[in-house]
Amino acid sequence: MRPVTGVVLAGLVVVLAGIAVLTLGGGGTPDGQLTERWISDTARNNTVNHHAVGIGSDGEVIVAPVATIAADNSRLSPTSCSLNRLAPGDGGVGWQTTTPPADCFMHALTEPAIADVDGDGTTEVVAATIRNATIAYSAADGSEEFRVPLSTYGYSKPTIGNVTAASGPEIVTSDIDGHVVVAGGDGEVYWTRSLNETVWAAPAVGDIDADGQQEVVVGTNERTVALNADGSLAWTTDIAAEDLDVGQVDDEEAIEVFTASGSGVTAMDGADGGVDWTHEVRGGASLSLHAIGEAGKDGPLRVYFSEPGNIVGALDATSGEQAWSTRLGPEENTMTPAPVVGDLTGDGTAELVTVTNGGTITVLSPDSGSQLAVYQRDVPVWTFPTVADVTEDPGAEVFVIYGDGRITSLDYTEGS
User: Fold this and answer.
1) Quick one: which of 29, 173, 237, 248 has the most CB atoms within 10 Å?
2) Dihedral of alpha carbons 319, 323, 328, 330, sign
3) Domain named Pyrrolo-quinoline quinone repeat: which ranges (predicted)?
4) Contact by Cβ (8 Å): 137, 143
């Protein structure tokens, strides 16, 4: 997530396609329900917390980065800025990491990646931090295991993936000034690449050009860059990528790269970075790490994005044609966090989870944009939700960090 400002006007699709109609509220009254499971006891004295909740693939480890803001650091404690492990069942805090009070500020900790990075059979929690390092903590007790040095603080979630020929996964991380680092599961740095530009988005890992080797895709405020497994340059474009996602959406072997920036949404060919299509958005667009999904069962693949003014839209992933656009609320000049695709019912089809800066969480139909369920707390939200299955019930749950540092867990029930 990165700041988005500006007055909203309807976006245009730069393809040979019609213009979708913007609907207010998605049409009709939602008859589904978002039921509050719990709200965490992690409140802070501000309303600008904006780094998302991290959840492991098995749903057992939930960790939230929470920060306090204070003009006088003497009022802060070592846990004022901390990672907090939360119990899946009730949101209770199991452990907290510590940050020196002098280093505590709103970007002190990022959304964490959660995985067994060192292959020892236990889970680590990996977050970029204000301490010029990406730090791996034990998921069991929050103790520090190792650090990967950075040149300055990190803003985006680290990515865990197998990049190099070495066995086991690597940690791919970056800092706000554009230094990209790939390290082993023990913290050993394999390579560093300096892009010297601002990096907001989490890096992506995949064989995007179908050459049999993994690449690292990094977005900056000025361009999109693909790096080979050894850190050398694969390709670069002059298209800013303040958010990005990657996915296979056509019959070609190369994987597509989707970016969002102040000018809109762009799809690029992973083979060489060539532009497939562009959807312009005045005021800028936002994407999440889970922006691509089917529109209904066996429906076409779409890319889901947001734009300022509580607007969420869907684009055909292969052509860029706009399928629908809906306004979630009346506030026309506010930023809108990116939507997230996830299966909330366990039936094999996805729903679209959206949030507004005003504190409203809405489940939309990915096919039509119609509202299926709504929940609200009167507290701002600044980042995308996290969708993960943490219970034995079918379907995933929704987790949202509100600006006050409290995390809300919600369960979705379909309407009639």
Assistant:
1) 173
2) positive
3) 165-283, 311-415
4) yes
103 phi/psi in degrees, rounded to 5: -100, 0
Vertex 413, ends 57 and 314: CA angle to 5°? 70
Give the residue from 120, 118, 123, 121 showing the smallest Cα distance to 138.
123
Distance of alpha carbon 82 from the chain centroid: 19
Q: Residue 349: what residue type?
A: T
**Which token pair is 327?**
């306004």
Q: Which residues contact 208 (CB under 8 A, 6 or more apart)?
A: 215, 217, 226, 246, 254, 255, 257, 270, 271
Token duo for residue 3:
């700041």
pLDDT digits (tens, 9 = 90+) for 260-293: 999 999 999 999 999 999 999 988 999 998 999 9
Q: What is the CA radius of gyration of the chain?
A: 20
User: How confident is the model over 197-226, as a mean pLDDT?
Assistant: 96
- Answer whether residue 311 shows pLDDT above 80: yes
Non-local CB neighbours of 386 within 8 Å, separated by 6+ positions: 52, 53, 54, 55, 340, 398, 399, 400
